[in-house]
Automatic annotation (TrEMBL):
Its EC number is 6.3.2.6. This is Phosphoribosylaminoimidazole-succinocarboxamide synthase. It catalyses: 5-amino-1-(5-phospho-D-ribosyl)imidazole-4-carboxylate + L-aspartate + ATP = (2S)-2-[5-amino-1-(5-phospho-beta-D-ribosyl)imidazole-4-carboxamido]succinate + ADP + phosphate + 2 H(+). InterPro entries: SAICAR_synt/ADE2_N, SAICAR_synth, SAICAR_synthetase_CS. Residues 20-270 form the SAICAR synthetase/ADE2 N-terminal domain. GO terms for molecular function: ATP binding; phosphoribosylaminoimidazolesuccinocarboxamide synthase activity. One of its GO terms (biological process) is 'de novo' IMP biosynthetic process. It comes from Candidatus Manganitrophus noduliformans. Belongs to the SAICAR synthetase family. It comes from the Bacteria. Keywords: ATP-binding, Ligase, Nucleotide-binding, Purine biosynthesis.
């Protein structure tokens, strides 16, 4: 399959109606299904940046498909929303847009998204590290004393967050708060599924020289069965922290194959995380693209 050459910031597929645009995806309602189009937009601190990353939408789509397929073959896995990513099986009205869609899109089942992000952390980094320094906890989970930045946790922990509107920040919440939001039974089912997926993905990645420090998943409810579905993307450089195993050294931040590289640049120029965001230099754009493709190459082989 050809990797798209042009940077796609917004799809304009007039024959398919007006899409709902998220931070990265353009979602077209085709009636009995959604068409998910992964653009090359990149966000940081919940703000979409001016520049796109070449090939990013392709990487997110192909890596998500790899994981969705891998977990679909496991008996204990939650089903996912993918119908097909084979362009030749898309509806006839999509055919004029092959150049835009092929490689960066998938046809998915409709679902009612849960109003929480399902985050699993196996290592102490990011907002979890900041909270731990202040309170010794992450999202209400008490952790052992004396842990350092990037330390491996004794066991992976489930740390949900709110799902904030675009341009505002997600907020970490406790599991008790999640239960009050979605219900006890569903919260427990989704937590168990998230931890199971993370542990199996982490083992898969370690064999390929990558540490999955943490990851964010999304679930929705099948409108007919009211059962959970894995939706959106799965275990990509946008939704996860990927660290090279050969340079892992706890006690500091780690090099990565994900958008932490972009976050680090933005922090280096003292951006406060509110719009308007600064422009990314060409070197940061190019290096980010390289990191995303390396993650895809390593993890999907």
């Amino acid at each position: 399959m050809k990797v798209p050459k042009d940077i796609l910031l917004e799809s304009q597929l007039s024959g398919l109606g007006t899409p709902k645009r998220g931070k990265v995806r353009d979602i077209y309602d085709l009636g009995d299904a959604f068409l998910f189009v992964a653009s090359d937009r990149i966000s940081a601190f919940d703000v979409v940046l001016p520049e796109g990353i070449p090939g990013k939408g392709y990487v997110l789509t192909q890596l998500s498909l790899h994981w969705f397929d891998l977990f679909a073959k496991m008996d204990d896995s939650v089903p996912n929303h993918v119908i097909t990513a084979d362009f030749d099986r898309f509806p006839e009205k999509c055919r004029p847009y092959r150049e835009v869609l092929e490689g960066r899109s998938m046809l998915v089942r409709k679902a009612e998204p849960l109003p929480v992000e399902c985050i699993v952390r196996g290592y102490l980094s990011g907002s979890g590290w900041k909270e731990y320094q202040k309170t010794g906890t992450v999202c209400g989970e008490k952790l052992p004393a004396g842990l350092v930045e990037s330390a491996r946790l004794p066991e992976p922990i489930f740390t949900p967050s709110t799902k904030a509107p675009m341009g505002t920040h997600d907020i970490n919440i406790s599991f008790e708060e999640m239960k009050s939001t979605v219900g006890v039974s569903l919260a427990e089912e989704v937590r168990a599924a998230s931890l199971n997926i993370y542990k199996k993905a982490a083992a898969h990645a370690e064999k390929r020289g990558i540490i999955i420090a943490d990851t964010k998943m999304e679930f929705g409810l099948d409108p007919k069965t009211k059962r959970p579905l894995l939706i959106d993307e799965l275990l990509t450089p946008d939704s996860s922290r990927f660290w090279p195993m050969d340079t892992y050294a706890p006690g500091k931040g780690q090099p990565s194959f994900d958008k932490q590289y972009v976050r680090d640049y933005l922090l280096s120029v003292n951006w406060n995380g509110t719009p308007p965001p600064p422009h990314l230099p060409a070197s940061v754009v190019e290096q980010t693209s390289r990191k995303y493709f390396e993650a895809l190459e390593r993890l999907s082989k």
